Amino acid sequence: MHRFFLCLAFAFILFPRDSRSESSPVEPPPVVLPPEIGFIAPADVQRHLVEHPGTQIIDVRTEEERQKHGYILNSLHLDHFHGKQTVDALAKLDLTKPCIVYCAIGGRAKLVAIEMHKLGFKNVLLLKGGFNIWTASGQAVAK
Questions:
Q1: pLDDT band (50, 70, 90) for residue 110
Q2: Strands ordered across the beta sheet of 56-59
Q3: Helices in 23-129 by DSSP H: which ranges?
Q4: Domain spanning 33-136: which CATH class is it, in words?
Q5: Counts of helices then strands in the chain (DSSP H, E)
Q6: In angstroms, rounded to a whole number, what is the distance separating the alpha carbons of residues 128 and 132?
Q7: CB count in 10 Å sphere of residue 124
Q8: Residue 41: helix, strand or coil by DSSP?
Q9: pLDDT tens-digit profile of 129-139?
């Protein structure tokens, strides 16, 4: 029995436990956007659409979110969580047209915008604050 405890103590010395406790979660690394990806405020979208007809508005939220909360009129739905299917659908879009990408608050939209940049899209804008700020600022919502 004494050997067991000695081996156990030796194991703790050889294999120390990670100093981060389970109660202090590790933050995910921040998303680093290429400098070519910009932001657009909800109040500026209408002017942008007038100045840049043909702008593709891409909603990367889930279908459930669209059904429950609505969406921006004429937005194309490409659920971020569909992974390769979403990337394949993006690859079929016109790379030369400006795009506005949004999700609920911005995290998923950033990830999709990075994929769009890798595919060769030249003019990608993220909706500042996502759909939540869009609705909070009183912008039109389609159902």
A1: very high
A2: 38-40, 124-127, 99-102, 56-59, 76-77
A3: 42-51, 63-69, 84-91, 107-119
A4: alpha beta
A5: 6, 5
A6: 10
A7: 24
A8: coil
A9: 999 999 999 99
